[in-house]
Hints:
Blueprint: H1 3-6, E1 16-21, E2 24-27, H2 33-55, H3 61-79, H4 88-96, H5 98-111, H6 113-116, E3 132-133, H7 140-149, H8 165-177, E4 192-193
Antiparallel strand pairs: 1-2, 3-4
Helix pairs in contact: 4-8, 5-8, 7-8
Amino acid sequence: MSANENQTPEKKDPLLLDHNYDGIEELNHPLPSYWISGFILCICFAGLYFFYYQIMGAKNLRAEYVDELNAYQAKMKAMKPEEKPFDQEQFNAILASKEELKEGEAVFVNNCVACHKDKGQGDIGPNLADEYWINGDGKPPFLHHMVLNGNEVNGMPPWKEILSEREVYYVIAYVQSIKGLKLPGAKEPQGNKYE
């Protein structure tokens, strides 16, 4: 019996792979079982998620957002008071009264001169004393709506939270009373001409 036969073979490392490249040996380190379990769970979750939202048609986050937004807008609309229609009789009575036109001038001077100057000849805002209008036709129902709600695009603020209903009628009556005046230093006409 030779000496070599009496030697026990070296125990092979269980992580060592069978192939050898130029003396380089490769170890096999398997992924931990918790990682593999988590990976399989993610795949299962993705399948269930796809089935629930795409096949069964459940609401996704976008649809829930749209529903909540619509509900919020409906709630805000319900809280917002409805705009009263223009009262032509009330307007005519104010327009016919010199005292109330003076009240209208006072409301105009206290609130509108920053943009339209003291006589409505226009500054940042348009000239209100000519027959030209950027927005609408310049008639009392339009002015009523414009004073109440403003026009953010053209820089006109809404006045419904600041002026009373009567003050709104005063100021539009005053604006109607100055229509067609040729004021010195008035701003150039803007918009379309209306009679």
